[in-house]
Amino acid sequence: MKRSRINEILMAADDMIRQYGFVLPPFAYWTPEEFKARKDAARNVIDARCGWDITDYGAGDFDRMGLFLFTLRNGRLADLQRGGGMCYAEKLLISRQDQLSPMHTHVIKAEDIINRGGATLVIELFGSDDQGGFAQDKGGTVFCDGIRRDYAPGEKLSLAPGESVTLMPGDWHAFWGEGGDVLVGEVSTVNDDETDNIFREPIGRFARIDEDVDPKHLLVSDYRTWLG
Questions:
Q1: Could you tell me which residues come within 8 angstroms of residue 89 by beta carbon, excluding any fewer than 6 positions away?
Q2: CA–CA separation, 14 and 16 (whole Å)
Q3: Residue 50, burial from CB neighbour count under 10 angstroms (0-12, 13-18, 19+)
Q4: Is residue 51's pLDDT more than 90?
């Protein structure tokens, strides 16, 4: 993705988030230079990979297959492993109309996916085989707003604003906005986007960036290069 396109997506996403009454934390608006100057104080943000995240899954067609995310807070895997402490994470996502977030699952993360506003969020669901792999012939059980729902393989859930679904590790899912763009909330256990996204197809989690202009704000995938 061109950095100029990423900058445009950031600004449009911030506008949409504000339209629904959410305001991102102050570090979201730091310039790269401010982040460098304050990186010691912001070490927890950097290590937890909180912040802006835009992906086209390496396919080079963001409008067709892509996702905007902002990680607001993220816990520590060590706390999760010992069973106490900061074991949770929270994100805001924007799923554009007909923009696919492709079929994937998680090994560790359980998550509530919440339609925070906009159009309908469609989620396609499959179960796992005995090894946790994608199983085209298996359904399962999820909870929608706390109410049990059994689903058939490939069934599509339609979440209106205010509705949610709880997905457990091994629940395979893909999603997109239907009828318009959707502001999505995600509340989950500790999030690790580098190792805990298992895709059905061999695709990448992060975009390859063409630096045609300077970044307006750093993405989480920029932290290692820009901040060390």
A1: 71, 73, 74, 75, 109, 186, 187, 188, 189, 190, 191
A2: 5
A3: buried
A4: yes
* Domains: count for the chain: 1
Q: Domain containing 181: what range?
A: 3-227
Q: pLDDT category, 228, cuts 50, 70, 90?
A: confident
Query: How confident is the model at residue 202, as a pLDDT?
Result: 86
Map residue 169 onto helix, strand or coil. Answer: coil
Identify the CATH number of the domain in which residue 59 sits.
2.60.120.10
Facing residues of 81 across strands?
none
DSSP string, 188-223: EE---TTTS-EESSS--SS---B-SS--SS-BGGGH
User: Which pLDDT does position 204 carry in this prediction?
Assistant: 82
Residue 143 has pLDDT above 90, yes or no: yes
